[in-house]
Design goal:
about 110 residues; alpha+beta; Immunoglobulin-like; four-stranded mixed beta sheet; three-stranded antiparallel beta sheet; 7 strands; about 20% helix
Amino acid sequence: MDIRRSAYVKNFLAITALLLSLLALQSPLWRPDPSLRSVTAKAGATVMVPYEGEIERAMVFQKRNATLSAAVPGQLAVHGHVPGKTSLLIRFKGGESKVYEIIVLPG
């Protein structure tokens, strides 16, 4: 009887571990951030990034990969320089922020 109970306990633990693993995969930690947007530019080229609202501050983190300039109202110009990745942060008046992943490809 002890052997049978031991087998049931092992099976129960294995099934519990499997279910916990499946639950962990459903965690928001494993899902991509829906607020992260992606912009792709070629080195030497410019891409326009549209926005709505009044910008308080906008900045690119790795200026060797890309730089930023104001274009027409409602659009920012991202200039690709060196292939790689960087991030663009746009902070709006009122506190809302948007983050973009900037991917610069070889020209």
